[in-house]
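Ticket #4471: structure export looks truncated?
Reporter: QA, pipeline team
Priority: medium

Steps to reproduce: submit the single chain below to the structure queue and open the exported record.
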Amino acid sequence: MSGLASIAGPLAALLADESVGEVVVNGPYDVWVELDGRLRRVDTRFRDAVELRQTAVRLVAACGRRIDDATPLVDARLPDGSRVNVVLPPLAVDGPLITIRRFSASPITFDDLVARGAIDAEAAELIRALIADRRNVLISGGTATGKTTLLGALTGLISASERIVSVEDAAELVFQTPHVARLEARPANVEGRGAIGLRQLVRNALRMRPDRLVVGEIRGGEALDLLLAMNTGHDGSLATVHANGAADALRRVETMALMGGVDIPHSAIREQVASAVHAVIHLERAADGSRRVADVGLVTRDGGGWRVADGAA
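Actual output as written to the record:
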């Protein structure tokens, strides 16, 4: 945090507070933080939109990136591992917007989640078995339901002798096993060149002798490459996906695989999903801000497609 204190301006004190999970700035006079899973407005203020913009520029520069009128939107990783998203006017109507998602300095283990009640005993036993048996598992849920936290915790259940190769849009996973090779996507430069996306990284990861492939979040055509990898000997792969339920997660993966630019019938994609994915762990966030595993759905074949059977909840 000491490195950010000099550039974060009025946000420095909030970023120094380890209980703050997220900092949300909706303009110079409207700042919120997430505490215990719930957003709360705080008294922190900027003098004006100019000071807010200057702070945003410094934060982005600390990531080795640039934000200005030509590039008014940036999503990047701060030196302390936090993820920052900045939007400048005119895209942001009421002044610059900053969203900083914090990650715990000390990793949250699988046992920690069980002890907190985020995973019940039956689901915990099933999840441990899925990881030990090298099953391919998706973690689904809405925004801020704890998908990344659970994915990091699951790596602690993987044998230290196994090599993990991870692919992320912005590196934020906290791994709990020693042998990890981390890959991070690269955006285009100011000339619009040099971008390296998740699809290219997933393909490259398969050449790096992974025992397990971990994809931080499936967002597009890389879903097809991940399904093909899962179906060609890369067992024990893990990934997260935004969805409202286990079945919705699989349907969304199908849709994103069809975005891969390859002329494959939908029926063939469904068969790929049915063969590749063994389980979906779905997370939900309650009204009080608590996060928990709502369901562990086991994926089985159903004719030429798939169905999700209740495993544990």
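Status: closed, not a bug. The export was complete when the record was re-opened. Leaving a note from the reviewer for reference: The radius of gyration is 20 Å.
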